[in-house]
Records
---
Amino acid sequence: GNVVKYTVKVGGTLLIVMGVMTVTGWMNGVTSYLSSFGGAPAAQEQPADQGADEAKGDGANGGSSDASDAGKDAGSGDGAASKADVQAAPLADLKLVDQNGEEHSLDEYRGKTVFLNFWATWCGPCQREIPDIEKLYRDRGENEGDLVVLGVANPKTDSRPNNSDVSEADVKAFIDERGITYPVLMDTTGEMFSGYRIRSFPTTFMIDKDGNIFGYISGMLTSEMMDSIVDQTMTGVRK
């Protein structure tokens, strides 16, 4: 009876700890970074692929529904990635416009490390990590240095009412309200979301200076985690 009593207490404590880690995003961060890229991340709050599926249905993904298979196994193993693991980032030539009307594509950032963050205005974990992403952007040279920080949003449009977020005007109002100064690309067609198979928020991809996927995390990141994955991608050494 005494053994069972203490076992129940210990088990309850462990469940509480695991629950806190799951809610804060730590569990996802610990388990998913540098994991195999072959499968899409599991949803955390709400499916985020409605607009993406619509994009695939009408050919917006260039006829390829498996664009993110290019990153299969990109994050597995320890130490520097082998040549067999190197996979190019999908849709590197796709041009998207940010909240300020400036055009961006991954191709133009060859030679730099890219922190690519998919998010939504209604997502609580996304909102909590925004200040740390903003800090990362400012501390690392505001995209003028070796690191480029990019957000990607999927606002609704008249032709795509099932996209994952509010209207583009409302997304831009949210950006202003939160003081976001790093570029947030407006993926109104869902092509980028589809190509990277985004089904949960936030999801962050790390792309190395050669334009290859180094790894991804599904879940909220802390400032320390951001610095760690940036440094790992820049050095090519996984910890």
---
Amino acid sequence: MSNTFERLELISEHACFGGVQRFYKHMSAEVGLPMRFGVFLPPQALAGGSVPMLTYLAGLTCTEETFAMKAGAQRVAAELGLALLMPDTSPRNTGVDSEDHHWDFGVGAGFYLDATETPWSGHWCMESYLLKELLPQAAAEFGLDTTRQGLFGHSMGGHGALTLALRHPGVFRSVSAFAPICAPTQCPWGHKAFTGYLGQDESTWAEHDASALMAGQGAAPYPDGILIDQGLADKFLAEQLHPEAFESACQAAGQPLTLRRHEGHDHGYYFISTFMEDHLRHHALALG
């Protein structure tokens, strides 16, 4: 895979806290369709410095714009010298007739894996898109430090952050999540997505389940610790998220985990923005 974007197009650019927030479109070889992403470059990067790259994976129904507009991350990222990369959550306009029939499957719901079932396997390959294409090409395009990469996300994107960090050891130096889907093999969202994307053979599902992946670790993959924030007023907590499963898996693996449970906080961006600074500082400390 080339480290050069194909047909990179700047959609918009916005001055922001001494840095710049940009949105791009490019042709993806992995997906086989145009994909969009956002990037925040802090003032340190604009001055020519090689800064760490922190990638945020958004949740169901979100786009590359959601985090940039709602999370309030740019001010602290500018202070800390962190570049923020914001992929879209799925391919779009794929020609698959049923791509937008469900809010929690198909468009806006890529689950950060490579589908193996037709018709989804043709374009739904978000894991390969991120790891083989977007991250290396963004780092090369914007002069970011590939040895200092962090990954975090929310809900479906929290699932993506945890699973990709565990599936690709050595790529990321830090990981955190907001209200992640911690055990998708045990919840309705996961069953729906995995059946559709991966098929009926449940033996393949565990490869994309953060709790199952952590349980298989022989040693702590992130000795500096993983940070998770979870709202206790989250309407999805009991049925869909299962943070206790990941907590138990971390304890068994000896993986340091800070799992903070917050009274009164729900699943949305008021919750995320409240604790965003803590996550950015967690990553900045690990990334140096």
